[in-house]
Each structure stands twice: as C-alpha cells, then as structure tokens.
Amino acid sequence: MKKLFIIFLMLIAIVNAQQVDVVKDALNAIRLGDTLNVQININNPENIERSYEIIEVIPSGFMLIDPKEPDEIQQHDALSVKLYKWRATISPNKVFTLNYRIKPNDVGEYTLLPTKLNDLATNNIFLSEPKTVLVSCIPNNKCENNENSINCPEDCGASSSDGICNYKADGICDPDCEEEPDCKNINFLDNFYLLLNKIFKNNYFYNILIGIVLILIILFTIKKFTKLKKNENKEIQDEMFLKQCIKNINLFREQGYNDDQIKEEFLKKGWPKEDIDKIFQLIQINSKLL
Q1: Which CATH number fits domain 20-136: 3.40.366.10, 3.30.70.360, 2.60.40.10, 3.40.50.300?
Q2: What are the tens digits of pLDDT across the range 122-143?
Q3: Of 50, 62, 239, 263, which is least packed with CB atoms within 10 Å of its CB?
C-alpha cells in the first residue's frame, strides 16, 4: 500500500511538471540585415516558487547582437555551438519572460532549436517547440549566392537556375526541372538563354567570360590599329609611286614625247593599259604636283 501511495505521488509530480509551458516566439520571416528578436516565455503553474536553468542554442549562421557574447561554446566534432544560459526563479503561478537578439549572415531557412528548461530542484527537463525562420534577400535584380525563388522571389523567377524545381505548367521553363512540361517544347533561343543564366549564376564562369571579352576587345583594337597603320603606309607608297611616275612622264615630255607616245613606251615596258590610263587620270587630278 505504501509503494502504491509513493507511485501515486510521483505520478502527481509528473503531471504537475508537465504543465510547465516553455514558449519560444519569433517572426517567421525577416529580411537579410534585419535583427531577429526571440522571446522565451516560461509559465510556472505550481503554487510554489521554482528555479530553472534556461539553455538556448544559437543557430549557425547568426551573429550575436544582445547579449553580444555567448555564455558557453561547445565543440561537436568540427562544429562550434554557441549557447546562451540563464537562471531564473519564478514565483508561483507567474510567467517569466526573457529576450535575446541575433542577426543572420546570409539568406536561407533556419531552425531555432527547442529551448531547454531544467528544473534545478527535480532535474525535470522541459522543451519548447522549435521555430523556423525564413531569411529573405534584399532585392537587387540579380539572382546570386544562396538566393532562390523561395528566399528571393523578386530576383529569382521561375526561369532562374537557382537549385529549386518549381514543377508546374505555367508557360515558364524552370531549368532546375528536367521533366517539367514547359521545358519539353523549348526552342533554341530559350535554351541559349538558360545556358547564359547558368553561366552568369556561377561567378567563376562569369569572370572567365569577362576575361574573354576583354581579350577580344584588345585583339580587335590591335588589329584595327595595324590595319590603319598599313593603310597609312600604303597611301605613302602610292604617293611616292605617283610622284615617280610623274617625274618619268615629265622626262619623256622634255624629250618631245606626247601623251600617246608616252603611253606606248609604258606598254612596251609591260605595263597594263588599265594601270597606264589610271596613272594619267591621277596626274590630271593632281595637276598641281606637275
């Protein structure tokens, strides 16, 4: 009978202990750069004062704002886990509230693990529910880094190569869905666009592409300069050749040859008639040089 009574008291204690509520409250979604305020509410439903140790695990990817330093850092393999720890004595039938603030380093979906509450008198453990927080991007018209159509819909549309498959027939081919209906009838231009989208999504290929463009610009500039220089040299050579021809023609004229006779002499030397006529035309145009 005595054992049954002890078991009955233990069951009552367990039932009462289970009534302790630990509630974690935070926004479900914030923007990158915003500070996340986390509130923890602990209800003591008993008629006696209770003392608790409160342990909060800070998710990886967040910086500490307030408090600025962790109370403890635990090493799990290669991962360092930062902890906040508090001790609180809660009056009967009262609610104790504490707050802390953290700030995300990157976009993504993060999970705030359950808050652990340890009853210092009984060593009973109570846990809150976990909390999921979506950190969205600051839109800049570029789908980059860890952004996707979930955490950055403004920059990463359905046609973006972001690692997220939006499988639906909406007239837009998602490059991350191999069997999406909208991708079956995609044309060459759309494929080319998707390829460029993937290339520009990868900063490594983007840098290579920029380097190739710069090299092409340099080669084009060198070729253009060489061509201009070549044309300039040709003009100088043509001018010198014309002056020599004029000099020779003047020598023939001084010896009493007329233009027809001079042309005949050039023909005897093997000059094409078209070239001879062209020279005399140039002489007429540049008569001031005679």
Answers
A1: 2.60.40.10
A2: 999 999 999 999 999 988 888 8
A3: 239
